Amino acid sequence: xxxxxxxxxxxxxxxxxxxxxxxxxxxxxxxxxxxxxxxxxxxxxxxxxxxxxxxxxxxxxxxxxxxxxxxxxxxxxxxxxxxxxxxxxxxxxxxxxxxxxxxxxxxxxxxxxxxxxxxxxxxxxxxxxxxxxxxxxxxxxxxxxxxxxxxxxxxxxxxxxxxxxxxxxxxxxxxxxxxxxxxxxxxxxxxxxxxxxxxxxxxxxxxxxxxxxxxxxxxxxxxxxxxxxxxxxxxxxxxxxxxxxxxxxxxxxxxxxxxxxxxxxxxxxxxxxxxxxxxxxxxxxxxxxxxxxxxxxxxxxxxxxxxxxxxxxxxxxxxxxxxxxxxxxxxxxxx
Length: 335
Prior knowledge:
Layout: E1 6-10, H1 15-27, E2 32-37, H2 40-50, E3 55-59, H3 65-72, E4 77-80, H4 87-92, H5 94-115, E5 119-125, H6 134-152, E6 158-164, E7 167-168, H7 175-183, E8 188-190, E9 196-198, E10 200-201, H8 202-215, E11 221-224, E12 228-230, H9 231-241, E13 248-250, E14 262-264, H10 266-270, E15 272-274, E16 278-281, H11 289-294, E17 306-307, H12 316-324, H13 327-334
Parallel strand pairs: 1-2, 1-4, 2-3, 4-5, 5-6, 6-11, 7-10, 8-13
Antiparallel strand pairs: 9-12, 11-16, 14-17, 15-16
Helix pairs in contact: 1-8, 3-5, 5-6, 7-9, 9-12
């Protein structure tokens, strides 16, 4: 689906954008890849890194509706990754999250519909499920906007999305902070040792997005099944990798944080298809709850859904090996 196609990546200078650009340029033959973002310095760095004539850059903000429409002209496929992702920042400035994650997403969806592109994949997060913080609420609305467009649009465009947990070493990941503290020989701050988080290496997140591009139907949300670890285990594994004896210091749960994250609700599980590594949540307008209750089927689905507390739990050694598989950790070890 990529060869000879014109690809647009919103927020394309972030962790996701850099990784998928690298993969697509090396492994496929797109007609062009357009990186649409606000950060001119990161665009400059990407341009110098790749020196590839297929890679194009547009400076713009998804909040700017006219600019989004101009960028979308002639596009075949869109990956919508532009977002405000930091939970604390969105808590302090919730309207900014609304402007980018909700209004910006509507601009992108409208432009994709009007241009009748082939497919758009929007990127969501576990924090959109049972959201308690501004970032999660805005991402939940991103999903609702996509689903509404899939139901109501008469365009030929396929609208679908992905939802995944914490991407290791991406912006907002705790691991760069741990490494920074270790190098500065300062205590490792954690909010609560028993807190659990899904752990997903960035290349696996990219595979999920490409799986959605290939298999996703109109209104689908594709979810990658992921292991999880406690925050204390994550900190201990990082310290062990760097052979550090620094103290781990609990600082308390921050505003907007959960003890455990949910990737799929109980209600979503009722309408989901399960693959070896994925859930496909189908875009159904109605679930037959009477049937599920009368047949006792609902009892087969955990009331809390699919969470970081009831998924596969990584051991200390497994957490350590997963960390060691990250390119960023390997680079830090030899720096």
